[in-house]
Structures are given as C-alpha cells and as structure tokens.
Amino acid sequence: MVSKVKKNISKLKASATLAINEKSEELIKKGKKIYKFGFGQSPFHIPDKVVETLKKYAHKKEYLPIQGLPDLREKISKYLLKKTGVNYSKDNILITPGSKEAMLLMHVVFNGEILTPAPSWVSYEPQAQIGLNKVHWMETSQENNWFPTAKELENKLKIIGKKKNLILILNSPNNPSGAICNNLKDLAKVAKKYKLLVLSDEIYTDLSFDGNYKSISKFYPEFTFISGGLSKWCGAGGWRLGFLAVPNGSKEFMNSLKSLASESYSTVNTPTQFAAVEAYNGDYENYKLKVRAILNAVGTYVYSNLKSNKVLVNPPQGAFYLMPEFKNKKFKSSSQLCNVILNETGVAMLPGSDFGFSPKRMLTRLSYTDFDGIEFFKSVSNYKSISEEMVKRYAPNVVEGTTKLSNWAKNL
Questions:
Q1: For residue 4, is pLDDT > 90?
Q2: Which of 296, 313, 297 is nearest to 363 (CA)?
Q3: Looking at the structure, do residues 315 and 346 belong to the same domain, yes or no?
C-alpha cells in the first residue's frame, strides 16, 4: 500500500525536548523520583505588569494584521536597535507564535541548504527536513566553547562549494551547551565573503550572565535574520509569542513569509500581542538581573559539583544549560548512557546525539531549571550575593540530582 504520508514528514519524530518532559511526567505519576534536567523551561514568573496587561486586553477578539500588531513591531524594532545597534524597521518584523514557528517559516520559504554547528538545538535539522533543505553539520570543540572558528567555517564552505544558497544558523547563548560565541566578528567576515544568510537565534541572549547582548548582526547586518521572543527571558513559554526580524533588502523573503503565515496560523493571538508591547516597552532590567543571577548561581553550583576527571564540562555562561561529557567505554551511545542514568539515578537528560553529535560521544544536555523560580526570586534581595546556601535551600531538586549524578559518575 502506498503511504499517505510524505517521506520527509514520515521520518520526523517528536521533538526530543518535549518528549523527555512527557516521559519525566509519566515516571513521576508512577511514583518515581525524577530530576527534570531534560526540559529547558524558564522556572520564573512572568513580570506582574505584563500579566496585568494580558488581563486588560483579554476581551480583545479581533484578528490583528498578519505581520503583527504595528505597535508591538515598533517596540521590538526599538529593542533590537538598542541591543544590537542595527535598525530593523517595524516593516521588517514578523510576529509569530513562538520563535520556533519563525524559524520553521524560514526553512519552508528558503530555497537552499542549511549550515549549522554541532551542537545545535534539536529542531533545526527536523525543520530543515520539513523545508526540504539539506543540512551540513560543522563539528566544534570544547576548547573553542562549542562554536566553529572562522577557519573551520571557511574550510566547510570550500567543501560545500560556492554556488549554493546557504543559511548559517548561530545560537548564542547556546542550547544545549550554555556557552556564548566570542568570535562573532570573525565569523561575520567569512559569512560576508561567501554571501551567506545568517539566522541568529537570540532567544537566550537576554540571559547572558555577563549582561552583554552579543549579536552577529552588529558585524553583518545586511544578511542577518534575528529570531527571538518571550519564552526564555520573560518566562512566557506557553504564551507562544516570538518574532523574526528580516534584514533590509529582503522584501521578497518577507512577502513570502507573510503569505505562508496567512495560510497557516493567520495571526498570533491578540491579547498576547498587546501584553508583549508592555514586555518590550517596559523597564524589566531589574527582573532580568535577578533572573540571570539566580540561573548563574544554580548553574555554577552544578558545574562545580559535577566536574571531575570522569565528567568534563565547561562553566555556564548563559541560558540554563550545561553539556557534560562522561569519560567511559561502557556504553555504545549517548542515548543508552542517558537511559541508564535515568533508570539508576532518576536524573533525566538528553543525549548529545539529539544535538548533532556522533552517538558514540558521551555528551548530554543538562538543564538546571528543576526548581521553584517564583520562591527563589522572592527570596533574593541582593542579586549580587546569592550564596550556595540559598541554592541548596531554593533549588533542592537540582542539588540532590547533581549529587546523585556526580556519585554515579564516580563509578564509571
């Protein structure tokens, strides 16, 4: 019987990050103690004024323009100008149901191939598959903070060949490593030389622990697309509010994105767009400072108590991830490693193979957000001095899970 499902779609599986969250919840319902280090979700509350704005506009039921609320696009334009120094006009911004949808639209519209470092977020390759775009992976190293060097990028481009349309995807701070790219200027030079399009996934950039918002658009504005949204810095993952900023001179691309949006989700829900105006226009720097400080303290605790001669890991720099590498020869794949760890310790993590690494590399992604962010946030009066004792008190699951994982690794 001929399959009724297209080949490129039949090969898809459920997103690894969502799947591990559902598996963790199932095990918890069965009475098993699980440390949810697999799913990357902000544990913090949405700022009160943003929530109040959503309530204020909850009665709004009219369809908004396909491209999004003009006032919201204007506020995001000003936000990007302030953060990156690049002027993405409101006419070059598309509001989407989450930044994930923004990137999917790009993959569907784009006629070419995708270039992405390993590690990369789990959905880049499947989305490219949906868009029928071939993916080229670039290996990276722990020594270079899990980002490609300019030389590595250029060598890869020479192998691929010059006559192809290419999008380079960069994500900093990075999911799954929690690392920040420190050589954006050098990468931009290569991208400009080869006339690459760049998709800069900046969903975590407001969660850079050093407080510096770094964007490759500063060095290569002419062909850099930026995706972002409210899910990480604002704690509003379930609200599904994202955006895509399109560089000047890409009118055809924007028109195609709008047409695709109009034929799929029509427009993003109205009350959330009004609330997002407040999120991007209000002063939430103190909120961000406290969120970053808590995440940095928790991440540093995990790093300090997990690193050993059996577990290699870089210190956290942003977002809420670490990428430990377990030194052993007992397991055939990182997937098998994660299953054994889950069964023997209750610690749920994702294998490095979900992020582009060879299954034989014993890398995992660890998300250190399994704590009550609302209570932790309330307890912090001075974000500059979050003690280890506070981490132990307000993030007990993270502390206990780290101890179990560390003790397990000692027996490798």
A1: no
A2: 313
A3: yes
Domain boundaries, position 382: 14-45+285-410
In terms of Cβ atoms closer than 10 Å to its own Cβ (0-12, 13-18, 19+), residue 2 is exposed
**CATH number of residue 398's parent domain:** 3.90.1150.10
DSSP 223: G
**Residues 166 and 215 reside in one and the same domain:** yes
Residue 138 has pLDDT above 90, yes or no: yes
CB 193 within 8 A of CB 167: no
Q: How would DSSP label each residue in 248-310?
A: TT-HHHHHHHHHHHHTTT-S--HHHHHHHHHHHHS--HHHHHHHHHHHHHHHHHHHHHH-SSS
**In whole angstroms, what separates CA 32 from the centre of its chain?**
29
Residue 8 lies in a domain: no
Q: Last residue of some domain: 281, 298, 324?
A: 281
Task: Read off the pTM.
Answer: 0.94
CA separation for the pair 409, 412 (Å, rounded): 5
Shared domain for 318 and 188, answered yes or no, is no
The enclosing domain of 258 has a CATH number of 3.40.640.10
Percentage, residues of the chain above pLDDT 90: 85
> Which of 281, 305, 328 finishes a domain?
281
Based on the fold, state whether residues 268 and 331 are members of the same structural domain.
no
**For the chain, what percent of residues have pLDDT higher than 70?**
98
Residues comprising the chain, all counted? 412
Q: Which amino acid is at 45?
A: H
Beta bridge partners of 166: 113
Instruction: Say which residues have a Cβ less than 8 Å from residue 111's Cβ, sequence separation at least 6.
Output: 165
Indicate the number of domains in the chain: 2
333: helix, strand or coil: coil
Does residue 191 share a domain with residue 159? yes
Q: Is 107 helix (H, G, I), strand (E, B) or coil?
A: helix
Residue with tokens 């995807």: 169
3-state secondary structure at position 197: strand
DSSP of 334-388: HHHHHHHHHHHH-EE-EEGGGGTS-TTS-BEEEE---S-HHHHHHH-S-TT---H
